[in-house]
Amino acid sequence: MTNTSALMAFHVNCSVQRRPSLFQNIHRLKTRLSSSYKPLLKELKQLPMQLDVSQSIRNASVKLLDALVDSMFQFADQPILSSQSNFAPVDELNEPFVITSIEGKIPDDFPEGVFIRNGPNPLFGGLKSTTSMFGKTGHMWIEGEGMLHALYFDKESDSGNWTVLYNSRHVETETFKLEKKRNKPSFLPAIEGSSPAILTSYLLNMLRFGKVNKDLSNTNVFEHSGKFYSIAENHLPQEIDIFSLQALGDWDINGAWHRPFTAHPKTAPGTGELVVFGVDAMKPYMEVGVVSDAPLSHDMGVTERYNVIIDFPLTIDLHRLIKGGPLIKFDNKDYARIGIMPRYGDVDSVRWFAVEPNCTFHILNCFEEGAEVVVRGCRSLESIISESYGMDLDKSEWVSGRLRSKLPVQQSTFSTNDELLFCRFYEWRLNMKTGEVKERNLTGTKFSLEFPMINPSFNGLKNKFGYTQIVHEPASISSGMPKFGGVAKLFFDETATWEGEQAEGHIKVEYHEFEGNTFCTGSAFVPKEGGLEEDDGWIITFVHDEDTDTSKVYIIDTNSFTSEPVAKITLPCRVPYGFHGAFMPIPSQD
Known about the structure:
Layout: E1 8-12, E2 21-23, H1 28-35, H2 37-45, H3 55-72, E3 74-77, E4 97-98, E5 102-104, E6 113-120, E7 128-132, E8 135-138, E9 146-155, E10 162-170, H4 174-182, E11 192-193, H5 195-209, E12 220-224, E13 227-231, E14 238-240, E15 247-250, E16 266-267, E17 274-279, E18 286-291, E19 301-302, E20 306-316, H6 318-322, E21 328-330, E22 337-342, E23 351-354, E24 359-369, E25 372-380, E26 396-399, E27 402-405, H7 416-421, E28 424-431, E29 437-441, E30 449-453, E31 465-471, H8 473-479, E32 484-495, H9 499-504, E33 507-513, E34 518-527, E35 537-545, E36 550-557, E37 567-570, E38 581-584
Antiparallel strand pairs: 1-18, 2-20, 3-7, 4-10, 5-37, 6-9, 6-38, 7-8, 8-11, 9-10, 12-13, 13-14, 14-15, 16-17, 17-18, 19-20, 20-21, 20-22, 22-23, 24-25, 25-28, 26-27, 28-29, 30-31, 31-32, 32-33, 34-35, 35-36, 36-37
Family: Belongs to the carotenoid oxygenase family.
Protein name: BETA-CAROTENE DIOXYGENASE
Pfam family, one: RPE65
Protein backbone atom coordinates (compact mmCIF):
# COMPACT_ATOMS: atom_id res chain seq x y z
CA MET A 1 0.00 0.00 0.00
CA THR A 2 1.35 3.42 -0.92
CA ASN A 3 2.62 5.33 2.11
CA THR A 4 1.02 8.77 2.14
CA SER A 5 1.22 9.48 5.83
CA ALA A 6 4.06 11.92 5.24
CA LEU A 7 2.19 14.03 2.66
CA MET A 8 2.67 17.70 3.47
CA ALA A 9 0.98 20.36 1.34
CA PHE A 10 2.08 23.96 1.21
CA HIS A 11 0.37 26.88 -0.48
CA VAL A 12 2.75 28.99 -2.56
CA ASN A 13 1.62 32.10 -4.43
CA CYS A 14 3.77 31.92 -7.56
CA SER A 15 2.24 34.76 -9.51
CA VAL A 16 2.90 38.42 -9.86
CA GLN A 17 0.46 41.10 -11.04
CA ARG A 18 -2.30 39.00 -9.46
CA ARG A 19 -2.68 36.68 -12.39
CA PRO A 20 -1.94 32.97 -12.75
CA SER A 21 1.40 32.25 -14.39
CA LEU A 22 2.50 29.27 -16.46
CA PHE A 23 5.74 27.97 -15.01
CA GLN A 24 8.55 25.98 -16.64
CA ASN A 25 6.54 23.19 -18.19
CA ILE A 26 4.64 23.59 -21.40
CA HIS A 27 1.95 21.23 -20.20
CA ARG A 28 0.81 23.38 -17.28
CA LEU A 29 -1.27 25.22 -19.81
CA LYS A 30 -3.74 22.36 -19.63
CA THR A 31 -3.96 22.64 -15.85
CA ARG A 32 -5.06 26.23 -15.97
CA LEU A 33 -7.76 25.49 -18.52
CA SER A 34 -9.32 22.81 -16.34
CA SER A 35 -9.83 25.29 -13.50
CA SER A 36 -10.20 28.66 -15.21
CA TYR A 37 -13.98 28.31 -15.39
CA LYS A 38 -14.26 29.22 -11.68
CA PRO A 39 -13.84 33.00 -12.06
CA LEU A 40 -16.02 32.91 -15.18
CA LEU A 41 -18.87 31.24 -13.34
CA LYS A 42 -18.48 33.67 -10.47
CA GLU A 43 -19.00 36.57 -12.86
CA LEU A 44 -21.89 34.86 -14.59
CA LYS A 45 -23.62 34.29 -11.25
CA GLN A 46 -23.63 38.05 -10.75
CA LEU A 47 -25.76 38.46 -13.85
CA PRO A 48 -29.58 38.63 -13.53
CA MET A 49 -29.81 35.16 -15.04
CA GLN A 50 -28.37 33.64 -11.81
CA LEU A 51 -27.35 30.47 -13.64
CA ASP A 52 -27.72 27.31 -11.62
CA VAL A 53 -25.17 24.69 -12.62
CA SER A 54 -26.06 22.09 -10.04
CA GLN A 55 -25.62 18.47 -10.97
CA SER A 56 -29.35 17.79 -11.15
CA ILE A 57 -30.00 20.57 -13.61
CA ARG A 58 -27.01 19.56 -15.71
CA ASN A 59 -28.35 16.03 -15.90
CA ALA A 60 -31.85 17.22 -16.77
CA SER A 61 -30.67 19.57 -19.50
CA VAL A 62 -27.92 17.53 -21.11
CA LYS A 63 -29.95 16.55 -24.17
CA LEU A 64 -31.10 20.10 -24.71
CA LEU A 65 -27.55 21.41 -24.40
CA ASP A 66 -26.24 18.73 -26.77
CA ALA A 67 -28.89 19.69 -29.30
CA LEU A 68 -27.89 23.34 -28.89
CA VAL A 69 -24.22 22.52 -29.50
CA ASP A 70 -25.03 20.32 -32.50
CA SER A 71 -27.09 23.09 -34.07
CA MET A 72 -24.68 25.96 -33.36
CA PHE A 73 -21.19 24.43 -33.67
CA GLN A 74 -19.71 22.73 -36.71
CA PHE A 75 -16.72 20.48 -36.04
CA ALA A 76 -14.04 20.14 -38.73
CA ASP A 77 -10.86 18.07 -38.98
CA GLN A 78 -7.64 20.06 -38.84
CA PRO A 79 -5.62 19.31 -42.00
CA ILE A 80 -2.30 17.49 -41.64
CA LEU A 81 0.49 18.54 -44.00
CA SER A 82 2.67 15.89 -45.62
CA SER A 83 5.55 17.09 -43.45
CA GLN A 84 3.35 16.45 -40.39
CA SER A 85 2.33 12.90 -41.30
CA ASN A 86 3.85 11.30 -38.22
CA PHE A 87 1.92 13.60 -35.92
CA ALA A 88 -1.27 11.89 -37.11
CA PRO A 89 -2.95 9.42 -34.70
CA VAL A 90 -2.76 5.63 -35.01
CA ASP A 91 -4.93 2.74 -33.85
CA GLU A 92 -3.94 1.16 -30.56
CA LEU A 93 -2.33 -2.26 -30.72
CA ASN A 94 -3.92 -3.37 -27.43
CA GLU A 95 -1.97 -6.62 -27.13
CA PRO A 96 1.76 -7.42 -26.98
CA PHE A 97 3.60 -8.03 -30.25
CA VAL A 98 6.81 -10.07 -30.31
CA ILE A 99 9.66 -8.14 -31.97
CA THR A 100 11.79 -10.20 -34.34
CA SER A 101 13.64 -7.54 -36.35
CA ILE A 102 16.68 -6.28 -34.41
CA GLU A 103 19.71 -4.82 -36.15
CA GLY A 104 22.80 -5.06 -33.98
CA LYS A 105 22.66 -6.54 -30.49
CA ILE A 106 21.02 -5.62 -27.22
CA PRO A 107 23.95 -5.44 -24.76
CA ASP A 108 24.27 -8.30 -22.28
CA ASP A 109 24.40 -5.83 -19.38
CA PHE A 110 21.36 -3.88 -20.56
CA PRO A 111 18.78 -4.01 -17.72
CA GLU A 112 15.46 -5.79 -17.99
CA GLY A 113 12.60 -3.33 -17.92
CA VAL A 114 10.11 -1.30 -19.90
CA PHE A 115 10.74 1.72 -22.12
CA ILE A 116 7.46 3.60 -22.18
CA ARG A 117 6.52 6.88 -23.83
CA ASN A 118 3.41 9.03 -23.64
CA GLY A 119 2.03 11.36 -26.28
CA PRO A 120 -1.13 12.79 -27.86
CA ASN A 121 -3.18 10.49 -30.09
CA PRO A 122 -6.49 12.29 -30.72
CA LEU A 123 -9.75 10.40 -31.03
CA PHE A 124 -11.87 10.56 -34.20
CA GLY A 125 -9.01 10.98 -36.67
CA GLY A 126 -7.20 14.00 -35.28
CA LEU A 127 -7.46 17.45 -33.74
CA LYS A 128 -10.59 19.52 -34.43
CA SER A 129 -11.67 23.11 -34.96
CA THR A 130 -15.17 24.54 -34.67
CA THR A 131 -17.13 27.30 -36.38
CA SER A 132 -20.19 28.96 -34.86
CA MET A 133 -22.01 32.29 -34.70
CA PHE A 134 -19.58 33.19 -31.90
CA GLY A 135 -16.49 32.67 -34.09
CA LYS A 136 -13.86 29.95 -34.42
CA THR A 137 -11.92 27.82 -31.94
CA GLY A 138 -9.40 25.04 -32.43
CA HIS A 139 -7.32 22.47 -30.59
CA MET A 140 -3.64 23.22 -29.99
CA TRP A 141 -0.88 20.78 -30.88
CA ILE A 142 -0.33 19.83 -27.22
CA GLU A 143 -3.88 18.44 -27.01
CA GLY A 144 -5.13 14.98 -27.95
CA GLU A 145 -5.89 11.92 -25.83
CA GLY A 146 -2.84 10.17 -24.41
CA MET A 147 -1.50 6.94 -25.87
CA LEU A 148 1.20 4.83 -24.24
CA HIS A 149 3.80 3.05 -26.38
CA ALA A 150 5.78 0.43 -24.45
CA LEU A 151 8.74 -1.79 -25.30
CA TYR A 152 9.42 -4.65 -22.86
CA PHE A 153 12.89 -6.17 -22.43
CA ASP A 154 13.05 -9.63 -20.85
CA LYS A 155 16.20 -11.74 -20.69
CA GLU A 156 16.20 -15.52 -20.30
CA SER A 157 18.37 -16.46 -17.34
CA ASP A 158 19.64 -19.70 -18.89
CA SER A 159 20.41 -18.75 -22.49
CA GLY A 160 20.86 -15.00 -22.09
CA ASN A 161 18.58 -14.44 -25.09
CA TRP A 162 16.38 -11.36 -25.16
CA THR A 163 12.62 -11.33 -25.69
CA VAL A 164 11.33 -7.92 -26.77
CA LEU A 165 7.60 -7.10 -26.86
CA TYR A 166 5.81 -3.97 -28.06
CA ASN A 167 2.35 -2.72 -27.11
CA SER A 168 0.33 0.50 -27.39
CA ARG A 169 -2.92 1.62 -25.81
CA HIS A 170 -4.95 4.76 -25.19
CA VAL A 171 -5.08 6.09 -21.62
CA GLU A 172 -8.80 5.66 -20.94
CA THR A 173 -9.68 8.57 -18.68
CA GLU A 174 -13.29 9.28 -17.75
CA THR A 175 -13.59 11.90 -20.50
CA PHE A 176 -12.05 9.48 -23.00
CA LYS A 177 -14.72 6.91 -22.10
CA LEU A 178 -17.42 9.57 -22.34
CA GLU A 179 -16.52 10.63 -25.89
CA LYS A 180 -15.84 7.03 -26.93
CA LYS A 181 -19.35 6.10 -25.77
CA ARG A 182 -20.87 9.03 -27.65
CA ASN A 183 -18.79 8.05 -30.71
CA LYS A 184 -18.26 11.67 -31.76
CA PRO A 185 -16.33 14.79 -30.69
CA SER A 186 -18.21 16.33 -27.78
CA PHE A 187 -15.94 18.72 -25.89
CA LEU A 188 -15.65 22.04 -27.72
CA PRO A 189 -12.07 23.30 -28.28
CA ALA A 190 -11.52 26.07 -25.72
CA ILE A 191 -7.93 27.31 -25.98
CA GLU A 192 -7.31 29.13 -29.26
CA GLY A 193 -9.68 31.21 -31.35
CA SER A 194 -11.90 34.25 -31.03
CA SER A 195 -12.65 35.43 -27.50
CA PRO A 196 -16.48 35.05 -27.68
CA ALA A 197 -16.15 31.53 -29.10
CA ILE A 198 -13.68 30.44 -26.39
CA LEU A 199 -15.86 31.85 -23.61
CA THR A 200 -18.97 30.15 -25.01
CA SER A 201 -17.09 26.85 -25.35
CA TYR A 202 -15.89 27.15 -21.74
CA LEU A 203 -19.41 27.64 -20.48
CA LEU A 204 -21.04 24.91 -22.59
CA ASN A 205 -18.36 22.35 -21.72
CA MET A 206 -18.79 23.18 -18.05
CA LEU A 207 -22.58 22.95 -18.13
CA ARG A 208 -22.55 19.66 -20.05
CA PHE A 209 -19.61 17.82 -18.50
CA GLY A 210 -18.69 19.62 -15.27
CA LYS A 211 -15.29 20.67 -16.64
CA VAL A 212 -14.03 22.93 -19.41
CA ASN A 213 -11.54 20.56 -20.97
CA LYS A 214 -10.82 16.86 -21.35
CA ASP A 215 -8.56 14.85 -19.04
CA LEU A 216 -5.89 14.18 -21.65
CA SER A 217 -3.22 12.25 -19.68
CA ASN A 218 -0.83 12.58 -22.63
CA THR A 219 2.39 14.03 -21.24
CA ASN A 220 4.52 11.74 -19.09
CA VAL A 221 4.77 8.50 -17.13
CA PHE A 222 6.27 7.92 -13.69
CA GLU A 223 6.57 5.28 -10.98
CA HIS A 224 5.70 5.46 -7.29
CA SER A 225 6.10 2.57 -4.85
CA GLY A 226 6.04 -0.06 -7.56
CA LYS A 227 2.99 1.38 -9.33
CA PHE A 228 2.98 3.22 -12.64
CA TYR A 229 1.10 6.35 -13.66
CA SER A 230 0.23 8.34 -16.77
CA ILE A 231 -0.12 12.09 -16.32
CA ALA A 232 -0.89 15.46 -17.86
CA GLU A 233 -1.11 18.56 -15.73
CA ASN A 234 -4.81 19.25 -16.04
CA HIS A 235 -5.87 16.29 -13.91
CA LEU A 236 -4.82 13.62 -11.43
CA PRO A 237 -2.47 10.81 -12.51
CA GLN A 238 -4.00 7.66 -13.97
CA GLU A 239 -2.70 4.43 -12.47
CA ILE A 240 -1.59 2.08 -15.26
CA ASP A 241 -1.24 -1.70 -15.34
CA ILE A 242 2.28 -1.76 -16.78
CA PHE A 243 1.74 -5.14 -18.46
CA SER A 244 -1.61 -4.51 -20.19
CA LEU A 245 -1.38 -0.67 -20.26
CA GLN A 246 -4.94 -0.57 -18.94
CA ALA A 247 -5.91 2.56 -17.00
CA LEU A 248 -6.98 1.66 -13.45
CA GLY A 249 -8.39 5.04 -12.37
CA ASP A 250 -7.33 8.30 -10.75
CA TRP A 251 -4.57 8.41 -8.11
CA ASP A 252 -5.34 11.06 -5.47
CA ILE A 253 -2.67 9.87 -2.99
CA ASN A 254 -5.29 8.07 -0.90
CA GLY A 255 -7.56 11.11 -0.80
CA ALA A 256 -4.83 13.57 0.22
CA TRP A 257 -4.52 15.44 -3.12
CA HIS A 258 -7.44 17.40 -4.54
CA ARG A 259 -6.07 19.49 -7.40
CA PRO A 260 -4.16 19.00 -10.67
CA PHE A 261 -0.85 17.18 -10.44
CA THR A 262 2.42 18.10 -12.19
CA ALA A 263 3.54 15.93 -15.10
CA HIS A 264 7.09 16.18 -13.74
CA PRO A 265 7.32 15.04 -10.11
CA LYS A 266 10.87 14.90 -8.79
CA THR A 267 12.65 12.55 -6.40
CA ALA A 268 14.56 14.36 -3.64
CA PRO A 269 18.14 13.10 -3.27
CA GLY A 270 18.96 11.33 -0.04
CA THR A 271 15.43 10.96 1.33
CA GLY A 272 13.76 9.52 -1.79
CA GLU A 273 10.71 11.71 -1.17
CA LEU A 274 8.49 12.56 -4.13
CA VAL A 275 8.05 16.31 -4.54
CA VAL A 276 4.91 17.26 -6.47
CA PHE A 277 2.93 20.39 -7.11
CA GLY A 278 -0.29 21.51 -8.72
CA VAL A 279 -1.16 24.91 -10.18
CA ASP A 280 -4.54 26.59 -10.45
CA ALA A 281 -6.12 29.73 -11.85
CA MET A 282 -7.45 30.58 -8.38
CA LYS A 283 -5.52 31.32 -5.20
CA PRO A 284 -3.52 29.54 -3.97
CA TYR A 285 -1.94 29.40 -7.43
CA MET A 286 0.47 26.63 -6.46
CA GLU A 287 0.35 23.85 -3.89
CA VAL A 288 3.48 21.84 -3.12
CA GLY A 289 3.38 18.37 -1.62
CA VAL A 290 6.04 15.97 -0.32
CA VAL A 291 5.25 12.25 -0.34
CA SER A 292 7.48 9.78 1.51
CA ASP A 293 9.22 6.75 -0.02
CA ALA A 294 9.13 7.92 -3.65
CA PRO A 295 11.09 6.05 -6.37
CA LEU A 296 12.15 7.13 -9.87
CA SER A 297 10.58 10.20 -11.50
CA HIS A 298 11.95 13.18 -13.40
CA ASP A 299 11.95 16.84 -14.45
CA MET A 300 11.19 19.19 -11.58
CA GLY A 301 13.55 21.41 -9.60
CA VAL A 302 14.82 19.93 -6.34
CA THR A 303 18.14 19.87 -4.51
CA GLU A 304 19.12 18.08 -1.32
CA ARG A 305 17.40 20.73 0.82
CA TYR A 306 15.27 22.84 -1.52
CA ASN A 307 12.39 22.85 -3.97
CA VAL A 308 13.06 25.05 -7.02
CA ILE A 309 10.16 27.02 -8.52
CA ILE A 310 10.53 28.94 -11.77
CA ASP A 311 8.05 31.67 -12.59
CA PHE A 312 8.23 33.19 -16.07
CA PRO A 313 5.79 35.56 -17.85
CA LEU A 314 3.75 33.06 -19.86
CA THR A 315 0.24 33.62 -18.54
CA ILE A 316 -3.30 32.49 -19.11
CA ASP A 317 -5.82 35.13 -18.10
CA LEU A 318 -9.59 34.70 -18.35
CA HIS A 319 -10.27 38.35 -17.51
CA ARG A 320 -7.99 39.38 -20.37
CA LEU A 321 -9.94 37.09 -22.67
CA ILE A 322 -13.28 38.57 -21.54
CA LYS A 323 -11.93 42.00 -22.46
CA GLY A 324 -11.11 40.76 -25.98
CA GLY A 325 -7.44 40.00 -25.43
CA PRO A 326 -5.57 36.70 -25.83
CA LEU A 327 -6.19 33.84 -23.42
CA ILE A 328 -2.48 32.93 -23.56
CA LYS A 329 0.24 35.55 -23.66
CA PHE A 330 4.00 35.63 -23.25
CA ASP A 331 5.56 39.00 -22.42
CA ASN A 332 9.33 38.92 -22.81
CA LYS A 333 9.59 42.38 -21.23
CA ASP A 334 7.80 41.27 -18.08
CA TYR A 335 9.10 39.71 -14.87
CA ALA A 336 11.05 36.45 -14.54
CA ARG A 337 12.10 34.89 -11.25
CA ILE A 338 13.22 31.68 -9.59
CA GLY A 339 12.02 30.73 -6.12
CA ILE A 340 14.02 28.62 -3.67
CA MET A 341 11.81 26.95 -1.06
CA PRO A 342 13.04 24.79 1.84
CA ARG A 343 11.75 21.24 1.44
CA TYR A 344 9.13 21.63 4.19
CA GLY A 345 8.77 25.41 4.00
CA ASP A 346 5.70 27.57 3.53
CA VAL A 347 4.86 30.56 1.34
CA ASP A 348 6.82 32.94 3.56
CA SER A 349 9.94 30.79 3.36
CA VAL A 350 10.30 31.07 -0.44
CA ARG A 351 13.20 33.29 -1.49
CA TRP A 352 12.76 34.85 -4.93
CA PHE A 353 15.60 35.74 -7.30
CA ALA A 354 14.91 38.08 -10.24
CA VAL A 355 16.44 36.81 -13.50
CA GLU A 356 16.52 37.98 -17.11
CA PRO A 357 13.11 37.52 -18.84
CA ASN A 358 12.94 34.23 -20.72
CA CYS A 359 10.83 31.14 -21.25
CA THR A 360 12.07 27.83 -19.80
CA PHE A 361 9.87 24.75 -20.06
CA HIS A 362 12.30 22.07 -18.88
CA ILE A 363 14.89 21.93 -16.11
CA LEU A 364 17.77 19.51 -16.57
CA ASN A 365 18.92 19.47 -12.94
CA CYS A 366 19.42 21.59 -9.82
CA PHE A 367 22.02 21.19 -7.07
CA GLU A 368 23.72 23.02 -4.20
CA GLU A 369 27.34 24.17 -4.49
CA GLY A 370 28.64 26.16 -1.55
CA ALA A 371 26.26 29.06 -0.90
CA GLU A 372 24.77 28.76 -4.37
CA VAL A 373 21.79 26.87 -5.74
CA VAL A 374 22.60 26.00 -9.36
CA VAL A 375 19.75 25.62 -11.86
CA ARG A 376 20.32 24.32 -15.40
CA GLY A 377 17.67 24.15 -18.08
CA CYS A 378 16.63 24.75 -21.69
CA ARG A 379 16.09 28.50 -22.13
CA SER A 380 14.61 30.51 -25.00
CA LEU A 381 13.55 34.14 -25.37
CA GLU A 382 10.05 33.40 -26.63
CA SER A 383 7.33 30.82 -25.97
CA ILE A 384 6.55 28.01 -28.38
CA ILE A 385 2.96 28.16 -27.15
CA SER A 386 1.15 29.89 -30.01
CA GLU A 387 -1.62 32.45 -29.61
CA SER A 388 -4.37 33.33 -32.07
CA TYR A 389 -4.81 36.90 -30.83
CA GLY A 390 -4.27 39.42 -33.62
CA MET A 391 -4.58 36.87 -36.42
CA ASP A 392 -7.36 37.14 -38.99
CA LEU A 393 -9.22 33.90 -38.33
CA ASP A 394 -11.06 34.13 -41.64
CA LYS A 395 -7.70 34.03 -43.43
CA SER A 396 -6.21 31.40 -41.14
CA GLU A 397 -6.75 27.72 -40.38
CA TRP A 398 -5.67 25.22 -37.78
CA VAL A 399 -3.20 22.75 -39.25
CA SER A 400 -2.27 19.89 -36.96
CA GLY A 401 -2.78 22.00 -33.87
CA ARG A 402 -1.07 25.20 -35.10
CA LEU A 403 -2.87 28.28 -36.40
CA ARG A 404 -1.42 29.22 -39.81
CA SER A 405 -2.25 31.60 -42.61
CA LYS A 406 -4.14 30.08 -45.55
CA LEU A 407 -1.79 31.97 -47.87
CA PRO A 408 1.25 30.06 -49.22
CA VAL A 409 4.29 30.48 -47.00
CA GLN A 410 7.78 30.25 -48.44
CA GLN A 411 10.37 30.09 -45.69
CA SER A 412 13.77 28.45 -45.79
CA THR A 413 15.51 30.19 -42.86
CA PHE A 414 14.65 31.18 -39.30
CA SER A 415 12.42 34.18 -38.94
CA THR A 416 12.98 36.66 -36.12
CA ASN A 417 10.43 34.75 -34.03
CA ASP A 418 12.17 31.44 -34.79
CA GLU A 419 15.44 32.91 -33.51
CA LEU A 420 13.70 33.89 -30.28
CA LEU A 421 12.42 30.31 -29.97
CA PHE A 422 15.97 28.93 -30.27
CA CYS A 423 16.59 26.95 -27.09
CA ARG A 424 20.04 26.88 -25.47
CA PHE A 425 21.27 25.22 -22.31
CA TYR A 426 21.50 27.83 -19.60
CA GLU A 427 22.75 28.11 -16.04
CA TRP A 428 21.53 30.26 -13.15
CA ARG A 429 23.61 30.50 -9.96
CA LEU A 430 21.59 31.85 -7.04
CA ASN A 431 23.58 32.88 -3.97
CA MET A 432 21.53 32.16 -0.85
CA LYS A 433 23.77 34.39 1.31
CA THR A 434 24.19 37.52 -0.81
CA GLY A 435 21.15 37.30 -3.12
CA GLU A 436 23.43 37.62 -6.16
CA VAL A 437 22.40 36.00 -9.44
CA LYS A 438 24.88 34.82 -12.09
CA GLU A 439 23.49 33.50 -15.37
CA ARG A 440 25.04 32.41 -18.66
CA ASN A 441 24.59 30.32 -21.79
CA LEU A 442 26.24 26.91 -21.59
CA THR A 443 25.87 26.04 -25.28
CA GLY A 444 26.19 27.90 -28.56
CA THR A 445 23.94 28.27 -31.58
CA LYS A 446 24.79 25.18 -33.63
CA PHE A 447 21.63 23.36 -32.54
CA SER A 448 18.53 24.21 -30.55
CA LEU A 449 18.26 21.72 -27.68
CA GLU A 450 15.20 20.50 -25.75
CA PHE A 451 13.76 17.60 -23.70
CA PRO A 452 16.78 17.20 -21.37
CA MET A 453 17.62 14.13 -19.28
CA ILE A 454 20.32 12.91 -16.88
CA ASN A 455 21.26 9.76 -15.06
CA PRO A 456 18.35 9.71 -12.56
CA SER A 457 20.69 8.78 -9.70
CA PHE A 458 22.00 12.36 -9.90
CA ASN A 459 18.67 14.18 -9.62
CA GLY A 460 19.27 17.06 -7.22
CA LEU A 461 23.03 16.40 -7.04
CA LYS A 462 25.93 17.90 -8.96
CA ASN A 463 26.28 16.04 -12.24
CA LYS A 464 28.97 15.99 -14.94
CA PHE A 465 26.82 14.88 -17.89
CA GLY A 466 23.48 15.66 -19.45
CA TYR A 467 21.61 14.59 -22.57
CA THR A 468 19.03 16.22 -24.79
CA GLN A 469 17.23 15.98 -28.10
CA ILE A 470 18.43 18.11 -31.06
CA VAL A 471 15.92 20.28 -32.90
CA HIS A 472 16.14 19.70 -36.68
CA GLU A 473 15.79 23.26 -38.00
CA PRO A 474 14.74 22.68 -41.66
CA ALA A 475 12.24 19.93 -40.80
CA SER A 476 10.74 21.97 -37.96
CA ILE A 477 10.35 25.03 -40.20
CA SER A 478 8.78 22.97 -42.98
CA SER A 479 6.25 21.28 -40.72
CA GLY A 480 5.62 24.14 -38.29
CA MET A 481 6.05 21.52 -35.55
CA PRO A 482 9.16 20.65 -33.51
CA LYS A 483 11.13 17.72 -34.91
CA PHE A 484 14.25 16.26 -33.32
CA GLY A 485 16.98 14.97 -35.64
CA GLY A 486 19.31 13.49 -33.05
CA VAL A 487 20.53 13.56 -29.46
CA ALA A 488 23.36 15.40 -27.72
CA LYS A 489 25.66 14.68 -24.78
CA LEU A 490 26.70 17.60 -22.56
CA PHE A 491 30.00 17.70 -20.65
CA PHE A 492 29.58 20.24 -17.84
CA ASP A 493 33.15 19.92 -16.56
CA GLU A 494 34.78 20.33 -20.00
CA THR A 495 35.13 23.38 -22.23
CA ALA A 496 34.11 23.44 -25.87
CA THR A 497 36.98 22.70 -28.26
CA TRP A 498 35.86 25.13 -30.98
CA GLU A 499 37.69 28.43 -30.58
CA GLY A 500 34.62 30.65 -30.80
CA GLU A 501 32.77 28.61 -28.18
CA GLN A 502 35.85 28.57 -25.95
CA ALA A 503 35.84 32.37 -25.93
CA GLU A 504 32.21 32.32 -24.76
CA GLY A 505 33.00 29.80 -22.01
CA HIS A 506 30.64 27.19 -23.47
CA ILE A 507 30.75 23.54 -22.46
CA LYS A 508 31.75 20.59 -24.63
CA VAL A 509 28.90 18.92 -26.56
CA GLU A 510 28.89 15.73 -28.64
CA TYR A 511 26.15 15.19 -31.24
CA HIS A 512 24.59 11.97 -32.50
CA GLU A 513 22.68 12.96 -35.63
CA PHE A 514 20.28 10.55 -37.32
CA GLU A 515 20.37 9.64 -40.97
CA GLY A 516 18.01 11.12 -43.58
CA ASN A 517 14.55 12.20 -42.49
CA THR A 518 14.67 10.32 -39.19
CA PHE A 519 13.42 12.02 -36.03
CA CYS A 520 13.08 11.02 -32.40
CA THR A 521 10.88 11.57 -29.33
CA GLY A 522 10.69 10.31 -25.76
CA SER A 523 14.44 9.79 -25.24
CA ALA A 524 15.55 8.45 -21.86
CA PHE A 525 18.81 7.57 -20.10
CA VAL A 526 19.20 3.91 -19.07
CA PRO A 527 21.87 3.42 -16.35
CA LYS A 528 24.13 0.39 -16.72
CA GLU A 529 23.68 -2.14 -13.94
CA GLY A 530 26.80 -1.98 -11.78
CA GLY A 531 28.13 1.00 -13.74
CA LEU A 532 31.01 2.84 -12.06
CA GLU A 533 30.71 6.20 -13.82
CA GLU A 534 27.82 8.63 -14.14
CA ASP A 535 27.71 8.19 -17.93
CA ASP A 536 27.83 4.38 -17.92
CA GLY A 537 24.65 3.55 -19.79
CA TRP A 538 22.61 4.15 -22.90
CA ILE A 539 20.19 6.58 -24.49
CA ILE A 540 17.04 4.82 -25.69
CA THR A 541 14.62 6.63 -27.99
CA PHE A 542 11.69 6.13 -30.36
CA VAL A 543 12.61 7.18 -33.92
CA HIS A 544 10.64 7.41 -37.15
CA ASP A 545 12.03 7.36 -40.69
CA GLU A 546 9.68 9.53 -42.75
CA ASP A 547 11.17 8.29 -46.05
CA THR A 548 10.23 4.66 -45.35
CA ASP A 549 7.41 5.36 -42.86
CA THR A 550 9.13 2.97 -40.43
CA SER A 551 9.33 3.38 -36.65
CA LYS A 552 12.17 1.94 -34.58
CA VAL A 553 13.77 2.14 -31.15
CA TYR A 554 17.47 3.02 -31.03
CA ILE A 555 19.86 2.11 -28.20
CA ILE A 556 22.95 4.37 -28.14
CA ASP A 557 26.00 3.69 -25.96
CA THR A 558 26.72 6.93 -24.08
CA ASN A 559 30.43 6.06 -23.80
CA SER A 560 30.63 5.80 -27.59
CA PHE A 561 28.11 8.50 -28.26
CA THR A 562 28.83 9.43 -31.86
CA SER A 563 29.04 5.80 -33.04
CA GLU A 564 26.19 3.86 -34.62
CA PRO A 565 23.45 2.68 -32.23
CA VAL A 566 24.31 -0.69 -30.71
CA ALA A 567 20.77 -1.86 -31.53
CA LYS A 568 17.99 -0.75 -33.86
CA ILE A 569 14.65 -2.42 -33.06
CA THR A 570 12.04 -2.27 -35.83
CA LEU A 571 8.47 -1.83 -34.56
CA PRO A 572 5.41 -3.45 -36.16
CA CYS A 573 3.58 -0.16 -36.75
CA ARG A 574 4.07 3.59 -36.96
CA VAL A 575 4.63 5.38 -33.64
CA PRO A 576 3.58 9.06 -33.83
CA TYR A 577 5.81 11.72 -32.35
CA GLY A 578 5.03 12.38 -28.71
CA PHE A 579 6.36 13.85 -25.51
CA HIS A 580 8.24 12.28 -22.59
CA GLY A 581 9.53 8.76 -22.14
CA ALA A 582 11.15 6.81 -19.30
CA PHE A 583 12.89 3.49 -18.75
CA MET A 584 11.85 1.64 -15.61
CA PRO A 585 12.46 -1.82 -14.16
CA ILE A 586 9.56 -4.22 -14.58
CA PRO A 587 8.14 -5.55 -11.30
CA SER A 588 7.81 -9.32 -11.10
CA GLN A 589 4.30 -10.65 -11.69
CA ASP A 590 2.71 -12.70 -8.92
